[in-house]
Amino acid sequence: PRPRAWARPRRKGRRRQFPC
């Protein structure tokens, strides 16, 4: 399983499955 950061984007404006 991937980390929570990969579950949803930390900030809006990036892709769906990216920690940034």
Automatic annotation (TrEMBL):
- Renumbered residue ranges of the record's region Disordered: 1-20
Its recorded name reads Uncharacterized protein
